[in-house]
Amino acid sequence: MTNHWNDLQFADVLMVIGANPAENHPISFRWISKAIEKGGKLISVDPRYTRTSQMANVYGQLRSGTDIAFIGGMINYVLEHELYHKEYVAHYTNAAYIVADTYKFEDGMFSGYDEATRKYDQSQWAFKTDEEGNVLTDPTLTDPNCVYQLMKKHYARYDIDTVVGVTGTDKDTYMDICKTYGSTGEVGKAGTILYAMGGTQHTVGTQNIRAYAILQLLLGNIGIAGGGVNALRGESNVQGSTDFGLLYHNVPGYMEVPTGSEGDSTYQGFLDRITPASGYWVNKPKFYTSMLKSFYGDNATADNEFGYHFMPKIAPGKDYSFMRLFDAMHRKELEGLILFGSNPVVGGPNSFKEQAAMANLKWMVAVDLFETETSAFWQKEAGNDPSSVQTEVIFLPACSSFEKEGSVTNSGRWMQYRWQGIAPKGESRADLEITHMLARRLKELYKNESTPAAKQINALYWNYGDDDHPDIELVCRDINGYDWKTKKQIQSFGDLQDDGSTTAGCWIYTGFYPENENLAKRRDNTNEGMSNFLNWSFAWPANRRILYNRASADLNGKAWSKERVGIEWNAQEGKWTGYDIPDFVATKGPDDPTFNDPFIMMAGGKGALYAAAKLNEGPFPEHYEPYENPISNAFSSVQLNPAVQFGEEEMNAKGEADKYPIVATTYRLSEHWQSGAMTRNVPWLAELVNHMFIEISEELAKEKGIKEKDKVIVATARGEIEAYAMITKRFKPYKLKEKTVHHIGMPWHFGYKGIATGATANRLTPHIGCANSTIPEYKAFLCDVRRV
Amino acid sequence: MEVNVTRRQFLKLSGAVAATLAVVELGFDEKSAKAQSEEFKIAKLTPTPTICPYCSVGCGILVYANEDDVVYTEGDPDHPINEGTLCSKGTTVRQVYTSEKRVTKPMYRAPGSSKWEEVDWDFALDKVAKNIKETRDKTFMEKENGITVNRTDAIAYLGGAALDNEECHLLQKLFRAGLGLSYIEHQARI
Q: How close B16 comes to chain A (CA, Å)?
């Protein structure tokens, strides 16, 4: 989230698209309700009439996988009716930047495409620069090649009739949504967009979110209270686990993983590649070197490039992401799998195939509270003959969150501490302890060896205590970072150095543990203004509660709205003051030429309406149909996102509309959580929702002769599952331009373990994902439904 | 234990607890509720603040536990986001502890076996460490195309979205920086 939960109350209009907070983030709805009580309007856009829709002023039905058409039409409406925030767009975004003549867009394709690799030459989308490399601009926004004009041209194609013919939204409702949300472009108004996996789990997932961001920039909604692009994250610490680099392509703090390429063969070469010429990321070498110092301690020196070569370098161009990991397992390239609280047999796409691949493993380690479907994949209940599965499996019992201590970071980036309420149950242990015990044993096994493999683990600096119980204080201090010589804590990431004199396990958190106080433990709930609660816990970065908050003030540094003061330029004090920590150099005044560059992480400091060389399929979001879809693309002759990569063919069978004519999607319920590994083992929750069901419309039920609670089979090209039919008015057939299409939905929480059991929806979902993030396309696929 | 519940907060909490229970068990008679409150199981317990383990709203929960059991849990009235309220999942968090389905001992499944065997921690950890070392030593690449890469592509790590920050930090540090894994992924990707 750019903003945070309490801040939702300040919105004039809230658009929830691809999320269902009333059911999946129930307590967040208190703040949405508060906005409505104050006269705010709630818009819900979803394939299904959810409980969020029920609370909304307007509900827009949208066929799964058509967000870009939907938002593209809104962008067009806002531009056509001049509803955008003119000053904000002209000065805080890259609307005035001039794009190079090599940029072209024709029939769904941008310039520079290579069909063989399904990749673009992104240099063709670059900005036009002068001889010194400065981007050329046209402040009048009239140059036909400036971002504003190109964007206008691109989205002029997204007229209302074409859009609703694709999305299936009622035309009057759609116009109402455009007008209502567009009203937040007025100076001083605020609109927020809330999204979740309904936005990201598509082959165009990243571009869906880009589309939201473009709309928000046009309306001047970023950086202000009640605004923002807000991801409603699904797990208590999926924010933190991402911050800490538990993904193949990131080390902590969103920095790059080195590759085995010539350019990365020296630390300097690597830093040159990853460090931009301007913007806050020019400090990256300081963050990276401090991280290496945290990893390797005394074994990271200027002489050995700060231990850079101990770091694994991934194969250049190789995709190691979740689905490709299972492709590799299928090809028998993996011997071992280590799972800490992860249950892919229920949560992974085309999960039956992923389960089958597990039998190729030599060994598996599962660390969890309960026996999961994944840890038990070899059992008869899983459909396996145990004697034929040669995988050795070790299950390590973990304790729950209140049987240990540590912090989690919520969607609003608040790092909140959880104290230990009781000793771990039975012999279960904290994941921290398990990791520490394992590290100690591995270090012991390698201590007398000098192979390259041994050198790496021997170089690892592991100073969390001399017995099997780690000292969490030392871990916290390591995350924050300290001066290597004096061991004094670092106050802020601005103090980090690139000469090996400082450490920082994760630079974006630096400052949470200055001196002797862990700020994640703060419990002062005084509201000192705008419900930012600056003394409750700690928010990264630097305790800022609203990102890009410089944009909450106008060109003179005055708040756009007196009701929504973030920070303001205080000429008397010579600094920015207000209700938040400035996300800007606090003393940068009007005399500074970059005073009106609020987006500090961007080279140039302007919000990106146009993303040059950032996203794989183009600088503007363009609508493409899902991998499996029932109609042809109305916007171009290109069906599927041209930059999507295919994995193992055998893992990814494709269904066609003649055999599988119905669109399907998956969703979550209030009573269960993710793969159900915890909630299906909690008696009360298991009792509340104890059966897997398929939600279908009255119209489809009639057509298929299905009655309420009938057992039905849902079939896709990947497989079939059986569940109860739940017939509702919440799904309606889509009257699209080409034809009428049925749409169904189902929860994905179920599996064969636990108290409440049921069929696993992900046996049906395709093994293909977003062209940028490779998040699987769980949310739109084709199926057929029949009675058992 | 370092718990930062202020005296003011604690008094307020006790009051809120008594009032909640009064509604449930005693009707609305406040005097009677106060008289009875000393007999409540939680009257002598100090609440421990925690954050809900489920979604990312980050609601505050108070855990009342004695040495053997979690006695009671409730929404933290001082928490600025949930202000004492909880959803169905947050409300039932006590049962994450009490559920009979909890695995309380390390378990081992031998290749080809049809059952789990309970084992001790040393056995389990030694087994894991040995497996990692064997696979890693066999597949470790010091160089690829003449460039130092120090990695193995034969072991994969998955998970983290429900773990603590401190745990994520150590896991990433151990598996990437210490063991050279490339396949490091978790729920954020799916």
A: 17
